[in-house]
């Protein structure tokens, strides 16, 4: 079965609570991920909760939170026709009050070769920008 993945990361001095607040507030994802028009979650930010998002120029995609470890990581899974698209977000403590934010997308299934030519290209371009924007917003938060 064909599969591919894309990953981006950056280092931040933002408190991990600030990063987590941005991750867990699904409706604000378009603030730091400019590839999204809107997002919603149909319940609490916990494993098993479903939601939907609208990528710019693409149809609405349903997703489910599959793993949530507050303050550290979460994953979500979208079921596309004959294909699964998984996003994993992790926050790793480094030295001297620094954290590494890492976002990873992986795709597996019969449509993965087609998405390799389209979605993967867009993610390779946009994911580094999204991670940096997330860090920038988290560093400026005062709440």
Q: What report would you give on this structure?
A:
With 143 residues, the chain is α+β, with helices and mostly antiparallel strands. The chain is built from 4 helices and 7 strands, in the order βααββββββαα. Helix 1 packs across helix 4. The mean pLDDT is 95.
Summarize model confidence as the mean pLDDT.
95
* Beta strand count: 7
Biggest pleated-sheet summary: 7 strands, antiparallel
The DSSP helix count reads: 4
Report the principal-axis shape. Answer: globular
Helix content: 25-40%
Computed over alpha carbons, the radius of gyration is 15 Å
Low-confidence runs of at least 5 consecutive residues: none
The CA-CA distance between the termini, in Å, is 46 Å
Structural class: alpha+beta
| Main β-sheet, spatial strand arrangement | 1-7-6-5-4-3-2
Secondary-structure element string = EHHEEEEEEHH
Strand proportion: 35-45%
List the defining traits of the structure above.
alpha+beta; 7 strands; 143 residues; 7-stranded antiparallel beta sheet; 29% helix; 4 helices; 43% strand
Task: Summarize the helices and strands and which ones pair or pack.
Blueprint: E1 3-12, H1 16-24, H2 29-32, E2 36-41, E3 50-55, E4 61-69, E5 73-80, E6 83-93, E7 99-109, H3 112-117, H4 119-140
Helix pairs in contact: 1-4
């Amino acid at each position: 079965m064909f599969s591919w993945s894309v990953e981006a990361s950056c280092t931040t001095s933002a408190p991990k609570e600030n990063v987590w607040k941005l991750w867990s507030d699904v409706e604000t994802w378009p603030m730091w991920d400019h590839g999204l028009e809107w997002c919603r979650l149909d319940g609490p930010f916990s494993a098993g909760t479903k939601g939907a998002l609208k990528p710019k120029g693409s149809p609405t995609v349903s997703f489910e939170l599959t793993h949530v470890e507050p303050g550290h990581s979460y994953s979500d899974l979208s079921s596309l026709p004959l294909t699964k698209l998984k996003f994993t977000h992790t926050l790793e403590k480094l030295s001297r009050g620094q954290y590494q934010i890492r976002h990873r997308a992986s795709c597996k299934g019969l449509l993965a070769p087609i998405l390799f030519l389209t979605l993967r290209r867009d993610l390779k371009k946009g994911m580094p920008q999204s991670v940096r924007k997330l860090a920038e917003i988290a560093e400026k938060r005062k709440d």
